[in-house]
Amino acid sequence: MTQTIPNRQARRFFMQRQGLAEPPARRWGTAGLYDAIERLGFVQVDSVNVLERAHHHILYARNQTYRQGHLSRLVEKERLLFENWTHDASVIPSALFPYWRHRFARERVRLRTRWKDHFGHDSFDDDLDRVRDHVARDGPVMARDFEGDKPSTGWWDWHPSKAALEYLWRTGELAIARREGFQKVYDLAERVIPAEHFSRAVSREDYVDWACRSALERLGMGTRGEIAAFWALLSPEEVETWLSDHRGELESLRVEPADGAKPQATFAFAFAGTADAIAAAPPPPARLRVLSPFDPLLRDRKRAERLFGFFYRIEIFVPEARRKYGYYVFPVMRGDAVIGRIDMKADREADRLAVRAFWPEPRVRVSQALLAQLDAELDRMRRFAGVATVSFEDGWLREA
Question: In DSSP terms, which residues pair with 176 in a beta bridge?
């Protein structure tokens, strides 16, 4: 029998799985930060710095005691985290490196064909050997150490050594030892990844089991496609086989969509007993919070629309004249609901957080209480961004 889950319960449960139901001022430190990232599975790293870089914002949204130095320590000193790819560049617990070897094998096949053609030259293997030998001999390097190379004709205008560095990193031979500014510093993976993780092997069967099981644990419940997409490691067919083989551990759930319509015919899988855990999920803090556009709560846009009734896309790559909201607009949550989006920027030259516009979602009443909560969150955001004041453009409060 497939049980139907009320929408609000499903939202609260997912927020709990995503670390958004805990007191935001409870002190983390490095241990609490590591636990939070391990629970999330990974945190996307992105270079856009409108307010702060996405990985810092994702973590600060969950706990305002987060400090950037703690993340650097976990990656660069304690080596409890490493950086590689899921859907995009991400920080990932180093204990998962053995599973990533299966991804590396897939990427070696995929990228060799794609990048060798993409960069339009026939010496890619020679470039790999040259760069690999350079790193092994001379230690950590940056792409700028090879600036004598002529740029390629590729889309990103990478020179051949930069392409080789990225290929060797994406396929597991190199790892990111640290970043300077936001520039990667590459070294041999065996000099970066702790030996107990670097040397451990995982069978294909165990890899598939872990990828499905760990994705479902972090999602709480999910369709075949959502489970496959979580880590971006497996095909839907591999997930389907795993679900069939482990049917006795699972239950089927349908979730009421946010718009109040009947639950869709498609249903989610969850571990047995999850329906009881969903019913017991606590409400998140009632405070208002601004999320990163890359926040994992909303990364799966279709799931976010189903659960929260919120349609969102990043308009960075949309021509300015065709943007509905703005270049980099942030979702705004209050409690367990997405209540609007805000266009703002840390103007560091003027030492201010410049708010251009706030759009409430339909049916959200802009009360004095809501504006007071927004003021409190903007003050947190300007402290997070390291600026002194908050300013508002004329006409910043828009209609839904």
Answer: 186
Per-residue pLDDT of the chain (400 residues; tens, 9 = 90+): 788 999 999 999 999 999 999 999 999 999 999 999 999 999 999 989 999 999 999 999 999 999 999 999 999 999 999 999 999 999 999 999 999 999 999 999 988 877 766 565 667 888 899 999 999 999 899 998 886 665 554 445 677 888 899 999 999 999 999 999 899 999 999 999 999 999 999 999 999 999 999 999 999 999 999 999 999 999 999 999 999 999 999 999 999 998 876 666 557 899 999 999 999 999 999 999 999 999 999 999 999 999 999 999 999 888 988 999 999 999 999 999 999 999 999 999 999 999 999 999 999 999 999 999 999 999 999 999 999 999 999 999 998 7
Boundaries of every domain in the chain:
112-191, 288-392
Among residues 149, 133, 150, 129, the alpha carbon closest in space to that of 141 is found at 133
Identify the H or E element spanning 61.
helix 54-62
**Cα torsion angle, 201, 212, 102, 295, sign:** negative
d(CA 46, CA 27): 25
Q: Which tokens is 207 given?
A: 């890899």
- Do 112-191 and 288-392 fold alike per CATH? no
Phi, psi of 297 (to 5 degrees): -60, -30
Query: Thinking of the domain 112-191, which architecture would CATH place it in?
Result: Orthogonal Bundle (1.10)
In degrees rounded to 5, what are phi and psi of residue 366? -85, 90
Is residue 392 within 8 Å of 361, Cβ to Cβ? Answer: no
User: SS3 for 31?
Assistant: helix
| Cα separation, 398 vs 324, whole angstroms | 12
Q: Which fold has domain 288-392?
A: Aminopeptidase (3.40.630)
* Angstrom distances, CA of residue 360 to CA of 251, 325, 339, 365: 37, 12, 6, 8
